[in-house]
Specification:
The protein has about 325 residues and is an alpha+beta fold. It has two domains: about 130 residues, Alpha-Beta Plaits; about 130 residues, Pseudouridine synthase I, catalytic domain, C-terminal subdomain (Alpha-Beta Plaits). A hairpin with an 8-residue loop joins strand 2 and strand 3. Helix 4 packs across helix 5.
């Protein structure tokens, strides 16, 4: 079963000493030079298995989500099969989040462990030469043994991109969600402000959600216009299955005048999925980053966030 569902980290937000949502994305990505002591710690030769973190970019249109499943093609399966060929041993890749069918990844954080002795350059070039055109590894970085991409993450971040114009797109087909009627951005922004903070998101979780509890802490929920695009940028400690798409579906209803901004709060407090509008399309949703406490965050490269063709500042 594929999910947009992430597991909230047991690490508290106090562990984050700086705000990870503010970084430079102007022009070309800055050179990445991690602290030499941390690199030495990550490359301890006495360890039999080496842990690597990696950032993965993928167009999710042809996949049934991130998580490996039987009889359908998923991103995790393709990546594991590719890395296993390079390592000449089975490789398991663990990601920070689990995207649903059709959802894209701009910088999906993941890790794997291996006994294969390969240089970072060989991992990166070898994998990208074997991967299909719609999956690419942006970077690979040796990490300390206790780094865990999923359980160590203290925040995840998504962007939902809507093209709000009368004509449907061709080049951006399946890369954005197209809404042809004008949307009232001011009312949508007023509604989005209600979800910041810690709430029970039962009204915005899928019926198939496997999370043990529905409470999530939203760090920010920014909604803004960028040319003909409307961007919903949301960061939290974790997300429920279909949560971002369900939130966006209700924002669309508000933008079209079918609901009022205060209805967002009413639906949230009701804790009842049946009273909320339909789930928004997967096309416009991107997993753009995950964040970790120190010293792990300093080891990870700081690259422009997806989708890069929008040229957005962080």
């Amino acid at each position: 079963m594929t999910q947009d569902q992430d597991t909230a980290s047991p690490v508290t937000l106090n562990a984050l000493t700086t705000d990870p949502s503010t970084s430079n994305t102007q022009g070309v990505a800055p050179a990445f030079e991690p602290d030499s002591k941390l690199v030495a710690q990550a490359k301890d030769p006495s360890d039999q298995l080496q842990t690597y973190a990696l950032g993965i970019e993928f167009n999710g249109s042809n996949y049934r989500g991130w998580q490996r499943q039987q009889e359908v093609l998923c991103v995790q399966q393709v990546l594991e099969e590719t890395l296993s060929k390079i390592a000449n041993e089975p490789i398991e890749v663990v990601a920070a989040g689990r995207t649903d069918a059709g959802v894209h990844g701009g910088n999906m954080l993941a890790h794997f462990k291996t006994s294969a002795n390969r240089g970072v350059y060989n991992w990166l070039r070898g994998a990208n030469s074997l991967l299909p055109d719609d999956i690419a590894i942006r970077w690979i970085q040796p990490m300390p043994d206790d780094f865990h991409a999923r359980f160590g993450a203290i925040a995840r971040r998504y962007r939902y991109i809507t093209l709000n114009q009368p004509q449907r797109p061709a080049v951006l087909n399946h890369l954005v969600t197209h809404i042809h009627e004008p949307l009232d951005l001011a009312k949508m922004q007023q509604a989005a402000a209600h979800i910041v903070g810690q709430h029970d998101f039962s009204s915005f979780r899928a019926a198939a959600c496997q999370s043990n509890q529905p409470v999530r802490n939203i760090h920010h929920a920014k909604l803004f216009q960028h040319g003909q695009f409307i961007v919903f940028d949301i960061q939290a400690d974790g997300f429920l299955h279909h949560m971002v798409r369900n939130l966006m579906g209700t924002l669309f209803a508000i933008g079209k005048g079918e609901l009022q901004p205060m209805d967002y709060l009413r639906i949230l407090e009701a804790k009842d999925r049946t009273i909320a509008p339909p789930t928004a399309s997967a096309d416009g949703l991107y997993f753009i980053n995950a964040y970790y406490p120190q010293p792990y965050q300093d080891l990870l490269p700081n690259l422009p966030l997806a989708p890069q063709w929008l040229n957005l500042a962080d």
